[in-house]
Write a structure and sequence with these properties.
Layout lengths: L4 H34 L5 H5 L2 E2 L4 E2 L2 H32 L5 H14 L3 H15 L6 H25 L3 H9 L4 H30 L2 H7 L16 H10 L4 H39 L1
Antiparallel strand pairs: 1-2
Helix pairs in contact: 1-11, 3-6, 3-8, 4-6, 5-6, 5-9, 6-8, 6-9, 7-8, 8-11, 10-11
Length: 285
Amino acid sequence: MKLSRHTTQEFAKGIIWGAALLTLGIMLWILFQILRDGLPLLHLNFFLDAPRQMGRTGGIFSTIVGTLALTAVAIVIATPLGVGTAVYLREYTRGESRVNRLVRFGTDCLAGVPSIIFGLFGFVFFVIYLGLGWSILSGGLTLAAMILPTIICTADEAIKAIPHSYKEVSFALGGTRWQTVARVILPNAIPGILTGVLLGVGRSVGETAAVILTAGSSLLVPTSLFSPTRTMAVHFYILAREGISMETAYATGAALILLILLINTAANWLLHRYVRKLEGTAHAQ
């Protein structure tokens, strides 16, 4: 029996909506399970106290510091490299050149490498060969390599989306290629670039395997880039995996969700404020 076009359309729409709702439902169920058991255990001292008895008691202050420090190092290293690579691919090479194809192929390959492989590479190269030991710097460099493909791809798409007429006007007014990149392309590509950075932050905050192998799992508050540390995700994993304290594990998971939500909310607020300011400047001109 041949279905009509309207029936086929409605059937396809139903499948798409079903897939979307199923994905949303799974996410909400996971969040509900963790927040239901974790939120009642959150209080001010839990955030400000250091872990005691291998994390069985106390708080998560040192893991919060370690998470923020490790993520900051990764973002500071990966963002300029990723944006610079995207600018080079889009503005300084031809679309079908050998260098362009090689860099894009390498980026695609890096994006598909499992995190444990990045961890083994960081352990062998940064921890042992370079002698950095288990430290924030070793973990940050490893995470930077992990999130680099994401930032390159999103920045490349953001630059690609800028109308070609913007560049033509800049060149017509006598601007050099670098002046066009710095004053026309990058300011207009900031929203897309920041999206890639946020994705990188999310992956850095939630990573465990690569962090354990490169940053260690010390419960002490880190005092420098060369100090070992334990992130919140690693703390959650160890508490749950070793059966040390499921209550503290759920509380740590809930705090981790709230931290990611806070970072994303603040970044989106800054992004929308920047976009409004950019649009206001354009209208004034």
